[in-house]
Amino acid sequence: MAEHRLEATVNGREVTAMVEPRLTLADFLREKLRLTGTHLGCEHGVCGACTVLVDGAAIRSCLAFAIQMQGCSITTVEGLTPDSGELTDVQAAFRAEHGLQCGFCTPGFVVSATALLAERPDLTAAEVREGLSGNLCRCTGYQGIVRAVQSVIRSRQAASSGQQAEAGAAQAAGTTQEAEAGAARAAGVAGS
Length: 192
Ligand code: FES
Ligand code: FES
Hints:
Elements: E1 4-10, E2 13-19, H1 25-32, E3 51-54, E4 57-60, E5 73-75, H2 77-80, H3 89-96, H4 106-119, H5 125-131, H6 143-191
Parallel strand pairs: 1-5
Antiparallel strand pairs: 1-2, 3-4, 3-5
Helix pairs in contact: 3-6
């Protein structure tokens, strides 16, 4: 079958490759780019193990053709981790909350949770369950996974209120300094 030239960005790097039209995105990532963190469970759109981000949106890479990704930016689970090698807060929360056992489904869950949290930072537990309902896990009973996502929501909210409090304190300090400067100027005028 004739191959076509594909140009896309994968995990921040420009990629050019010749691909057959029938090659799925999942197979392209795993077999051509050796990004094997994207797993294949059902290969027909049910389990979510193959979830990747395309231009920021979570999609099932077993249901997309690689050639459809022309000009797109793809992020796999490998690309979520910063170059420093530290875990993202979502990855760290999965580890801390025992959100995995065999780990086969975990990349898909981590990618889906990352997209979900970017879209909706204030989800309730029920909304977390609904948002992740397209990913299947045979091992954990989902409790640890939902706990992990909720713990990310809590820690991001705490960090955001801390930043707001700091910004408020800095603004208040600025206002005090301006008031003091005004008082000093007024005293100077009065004394002259
Ligand atoms: S392998 Fe893609 S949804 Fe299951
Ligand atoms: S941890 Fe095993 S399938 Fe999810």
